[in-house]
Amino acid sequence: MFKQENKRLVLVISLVLIILLTLLMVYFVQNSVSSSDIEPLSESENNEIVYFEGEILTDSESNVNKSIDEGSSTLQKQTTSSEESEKNMEEVEDKLVNNSSDQSSEYVSNILDVSIGPNISITYPIDNAAYIQNIVLVNYTVDSADSCWYSVDNGATNSSTVTAGTAFTGLNLGTSDLIVYCNNSLGYIGSDNASFIVGYFDTVTQVNKLQSSDIAEGDALGYSVSISGDYAIIGAKGEDSGTDDEGAAYIFKKNSTTGLFEEVNKIVASDKDVNAYFGSFVSISGDYAIVGAPFEDSGTDDEGAAYIFKKNSTTGLFEEVNKIVASDMQVDDNFGFSVSISGDYAIVGAHKEDTGGVSAGAAYIFKKNSTTGLFEEVNKIQASNRGDGDLFGISASISGDYAIVGSRDEDTGASNVGAAYIFKKNPTTGLFEEVHMIQASDKGEGDFFGYSSSISGDYAIVGAFNNDAGTDDEGAAYIFKKNSTTGLFEEVNKIVASDKEVNDNFGQSTSINGDYAIVGAPKEDSGTTDGGSAYVFKKNSTTGLFEEVSKIQSSDRETYDYFGIFGSVSISRDNIIVGAKGEDTGGNAAGAAYSFNMTETFIAPTQTENNISDGEGSGEGTNLSSYNSNTISSVSNYIWHRKGKGKIKWITALNLANANIGNDNNLDNDIEVGDRFVSVDSSTATAFASKSANVTFENVDCSLCNSENILYSSNYYTSLSEIQGDGQSCSLVNKCSSISCTTPGGTGNCTFIASSFSGYAIGGNVNLTINDSVEGSSALTDTEVSFYAKYLNVTDNSPIASATCTVMFDDNPTSYSMTWNGTGTNLYNFTKSAGFASAAMHDWNVTCSKTGFTTLLANDTIEIQSVASSSGGTSNQTGQVNFTQAGSAGIILQDDGIAFGSGYFNTTCSQSYSVLDSSSLFNAGENGAYAAPGCWINTTDLDIEDEGVSPVQDYHWIENNGTTVVSISASSNKDGPDFICARLDGGVCATAAANLSVKAAANETTACSQGLNTTYQLMGADGINNTIPLCAMLHFADTKDDMKVYYKLTIPSDISPGFRTMTITYIATTV
């Protein structure tokens, strides 16, 4: 009985719904609404009427935010007022009575095909995008939803509620599909989907635990850490080197065989002091390290100090160089609470310094004296808006010409919101000056933004460990990037832990290096109370945002280890060091540090570009990711592609039927395509390594797409830094050809042909620039010239000492060693004392190399000119003037002279002559129209001296290189008619005179103090090869010793075609 009544109830409800829908459809026919009446879709407090094919469908307060297409039917929305809505509904009631049931049935049939549900839009992940990690946060927008759920990777639908910000972890490599479903109160269900690629991710693995050889209770080893390349320094502020809490630090080095970090030596202050807490903050860069002792009594009480250490090149031990203190030190300044070193510069914070306010704070810049090697104070820096209790200097970091200083309790916007300040070195004064203040975009009271900070190149990171990222003190950090136009650092994105919890203090420590950043959360509780964690982030090459790639913890974590506490995270290339000052092995709070190695894991997506096939049809080639040695056969155009990174496409067919692919027949272990590098293991994947291929580096700086900056390594590596450390310029090994880039001057895809493998990369870990002592000018034959090379580490912009740099010149195949000047210019130099014997544009190049750094080649040219000697008597030097009378076409130029180019006389011209003037060849932009009057046309191949100057000129440039004042004159080896009419060659000039004239001009003010001939003088009249004076007194001082000489030709209309040349002799006579 119950079942029967239930069925009847359902039937009644169904009939009622059908009647209602039928009545509405009848109204649609009678009361159509034109499309011009329909407003754009937008939210409103008014009621909203939904239209179907121009008719009112339903009156609803739900927000319909997009059109729905069903065949030719379209669902649209129009906003009306409540009054208008009531009026429309009354009209519906009036019109429904007159509609037939057949007409209503037809519209009901159409309507039943339209689904009205919540409107969902997935905003992240982006459809068809590629991501660099296997953790993806989902974000979406939805209107009028009761609940939402999802399915991912084509798995079963997950019934649990999904909210914006949910993290999906462990996604399959390759293509992933995400669908988000939501329902509303009417029971309708809507959905949206996104398909994206997870192509690769970074794996961080603990290598070893680091403790000092004399570890003891209360040492707090790991309170601060820093890493640079293969060296790390770890502070132990509570170590009792003498009596109590003097503090110490320990140097560790990575064993190149085992990869383990091993202790090198213990360092302490030469004047260690009780409770100095030496080791509270540490920093290392190359061969130098700095250690802060903020409670050292340099004066009376807690003024603080810092100590510089340098690696002994013989023993490998780090030894103290000098102690540094503030020039204006005061009691309780705590100078040394933060320290950082980069190349020749160091920065030290004194967050309780009182200038401008009690504990307003300050920081101090120090520079290494190139003569003594000691670090000396450059200038004191403070915030421009400093105030009481700001604690400016509680964190500080320096990289190249930029520094960042944190001010944890700065109050702009709210109490203790915090700030950080960017400083830049003034290239003229050498002083560091404030650029601007930065704060979080969502700053809030008590965030403590600036408690930690780090800067590397164009990027900076600032921690705000009290930020309420969720509810209370979860913590956050913020990435900033320097705007290349304004020079200001602008926020890129806010980063938080994927599993953030209350009181984690995420952001208490931060470090950034290249594309990677690490953030410590010392009170994170996974597994243990306040055991601590750290999180690694990587810049997404597509979006530019930093995204979490790994959460790391110590393998033996325990309660209150505080893994990742203030100052205890550091990252350098693929190496990570994290301190845990509360770790108890060796005694209560003895402390420890942990080393981690970061590797990139990649499995090529199963979905690849262009419907890849076996080298036929529209496809590009065969996708290697799905093949092994048992399935591949001999085909052409195999490719290995990693979207957004790069591609290898083999040019020739590879016979792989019986080839062994690695030790496990898995190409994933033998071919690497990463960010700016590719590599093929030549010892295992021999069939691939021995063949040529088209290599593409995607999304790179096209200015690096050349044979000097594309690197080759004969070894197989799995990271960019390894190839950079071992590679050398393709121009040195002749391994690259057909180099091109899609966007010259911008960011694009760099493509070239690699003749064979193992590895290639674009852009080294060094920068090599060269110049000569006459840069921008010219030198004379047989005159001494010096050549210089600057070989810099791009990580910190520091000069690389003890490298091997050699220079070669085109006039001699010998390679000359360059000498390092480490006490002055930090340049490598070579002096070519005999100079060059011939006048020409000479090529020269420098090659620099050092273990662990890229071997680079740089090329340049130098102009060598001939001029008269003025040591006494007279001396002759020659130059040339030439032009071409072209018949139909011809290009003839002389490098070492004045070239009037190639042209011809216009026979339609009414004049019987034309004038060619080297002081005014043609006006810029007129493309060959001579400025001088005449009939000479279609001039090409002019030898232009001064680009962009109007009128364009060509001249001989004479410089007095002697030691006394000289007079200058010129004579020709032919008279005008002989030269212009080529009479000696059988040419004729009958209609008009053919003349050659000469004049001079001073190239430097007062160079010629007397007798400067600035008006054209006839030179070499018919049958006369006369000498023309140009300057009576040409000086020899560097600032006024050169002049220009111009020539003018008067050319008759009847000259015969052909090339003309003549020799001009310049005569320098002592005055």
Descriptive overview:
The structure is a single chain. By secondary structure, the chain is mostly beta strands. The chain is 7% helix and 43% strand. The protein contains 7 helices and 72 strands. The protein has a 7-stranded mixed sheet, with no helix packed on it. It has a 6-stranded mixed sheet with strand order 40-41-42-45-49-48. β48 and β49 (747-754) form a beta hairpin. α1 (2-30) packs across α2 and α1 packs across α3 (101-111). The longest helix has 29 residues, at 2-30. Residues 1-13, 26-115, 602-636, 656-665, 868-875, 883-895 and 923-933 have low confidence and may be disordered.
Brief summary:
The protein is mainly beta. The protein contains 7 helices and 72 strands. The protein starts with a helix and ends with a strand.
Secondary structure blueprint with pairings:
Layout lengths: L1 H29 L17 E5 L2 E6 L7 E3 L2 E7 L2 H15 L4 H11 L8 E5 L5 E2 L3 E8 L4 E6 L13 E4 L4 E10 L5 E10 L1 E11 L10 E8 L2 E6 L11 E7 L6 E7 L13 E5 L2 E6 L11 E7 L6 E7 L13 E5 L2 E6 L11 E7 L6 E7 L10 E8 L2 E6 L11 E7 L6 E7 L13 E5 L2 E6 L11 E7 L6 E7 L13 E5 L2 E6 L11 E7 L6 E7 L16 E4 L2 E6 L11 E11 L19 E2 L14 E5 L3 E5 L20 E4 L2 E4 L5 H4 L3 E9 L8 E4 L6 H7 L1 E2 H4 L2 E6 L5 E8 L4 E4 L3 E7 L5 E3 L4 E9 L4 E2 L4 E6 L2 E6 L1 E3 L5 E6 L7 E11 L2 E13 L8 E12 L11 E9 L7 E5 L18 E5 L15 E4 L6 E7 L3 H6 L13 E8 L5 E3 L6 E3 L7 E8 L7 E11 L5 E13 L1
Parallel strand pairs: 6-11, 40-41, 52-60, 61-62
Antiparallel strand pairs: 1-2, 1-4, 3-4, 5-7, 7-9, 8-10, 10-11, 12-39, 13-14, 14-15, 15-16, 17-18, 18-19, 19-20, 21-22, 22-23, 23-24, 25-26, 26-27, 27-28, 29-30, 30-31, 31-32, 33-34, 34-35, 35-36, 37-38, 38-39, 41-42, 42-45, 43-44, 44-50, 45-49, 46-47, 46-50, 48-49, 51-53, 53-54, 53-58, 55-56, ...
